[in-house]
C-alpha cells in the first residue's frame, strides 16, 4: 500500500485517510522507539514485563511465582509474536533477577525487584520523548477517539 501523505495533507484529506493504516504505523513506530530506548539502557521490554508480572509491588496480585505459559497468558494482550519469554526469563535467571523452582515457576528476587525499580525510573523520560509537542488535552482526545473507534467496530476495551 502506498502510504497516505501526511505532512502536507489538509484537514479534509486527513479526515478521509484510513485510521487502521495510521494506528498500525504509530504502533510499530512507538514499539520500535520504546524498545530501542530500553535496549540502550541495557534491558528489553519483555524482561521488564516479566519482572513487573512477578513483582508483588507491581502487576502480580500476590507475588506468587508463575510458569512461562502462565506469564504468556498474563501478557497475551501486549506480548509480540517475536518475544521469547523463555529466553528472556533465562537471561533474568542468569543475572540473578529471577529464580526457578522445581516446578518451573519463576520468582522475582531482591535483585530482580531492584532491577525492576531501576528500569521503571526510565519510563518517564521515554514517555516524555514520545509525547514531545503534544499537550495532554490533545493526547486524551486522541485516546478517546481511538476508544470510540474500537467500540464502533465491536472491539473490546481492556
Descriptors:
8 helices; two-stranded antiparallel ribbon; 158 residues; mainly alpha
Can you describe what's shown?
The chain is mainly alpha-helical. It has 8 helices and 2 strands. The protein has a two-stranded antiparallel ribbon. Strand 1 and strand 2 form a beta hairpin. The longest helix is centred in the first third of the chain and has 22 residues, at 19-40. It is elongated, with a radius of gyration of 19 Å. The model has no long low-confidence stretch (mean pLDDT 94).
SS content category: mainly alpha
- Major sheet: arrangement of strands: 1-2
How far is it from the N-terminal to the C-terminal residue, by CA?
Answer: 30 Å
Tell me the strand percentage band: under 5%
Q: Can you summarize the main beta sheet?
A: 2 strands, antiparallel
Give the H and E element order: HHHHHEEHHH
Number of helices: 8
What radius of gyration results from the CA coordinates? 19 Å
Low-confidence stretches: none
Overall shape: elongated
Number of strands: 2
Helix % is: 55-70%
Average pLDDT: 94
Concise summary:
This protein has 158 residues and is mainly alpha-helical.
Task: Set down the secondary structure blueprint.
Layout: H1 11-15, H2 19-40, H3 45-54, H4 68-74, H5 85-95, E1 98-100, E2 106-108, H6 110-120, H7 123-131, H8 136-152
Amino acid at each position: 500500500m502506498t502510504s497516505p501523505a501526511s505532512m502536507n495533507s489538509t484537514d479534509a484529506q486527513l479526515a478521509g485517510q484510513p485510521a487502521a493504516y495510521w494506528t498500525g504505523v504509530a504502533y510499530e513506530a512507538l514499539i520500535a522507539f520504546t524498545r530501542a530506548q530500553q535496549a540502550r539502557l541495557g534491558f528489553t521490554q519483555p524482561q521488564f514485563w516479566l519482572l513487573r508480572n512477578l513483582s508483588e509491588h507491581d502487576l502480580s496480585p500476590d507475588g506468587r511465582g508463575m510458569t512461562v505459559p502462565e506469564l504468556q497468558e498474563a501478557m497475551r494482550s501486549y506480548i509480540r509474536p517475536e518475544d521469547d519469554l523463555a529466553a528472556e526469563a533465562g537471561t533474568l535467571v542468569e543475572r540473578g533477577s529471577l529464580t526457578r523452582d522445581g516446578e518451573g515457576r519463576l520468582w522475582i528476587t531482591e535483585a530482580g525487584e531492584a532491577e525492576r525499580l531501576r528500569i521503571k525510573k526510565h519510563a518517564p523520560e521515554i514517555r516524555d520523548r514520545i509525547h514531545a509537542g503534544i499537550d495532554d488535552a490533545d493526547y486524551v482526545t486522541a485516546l478517546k477517539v481511538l476508544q470510540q473507534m474500537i467500540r464502533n467496530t465491536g472491539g473490546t476495551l481492556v
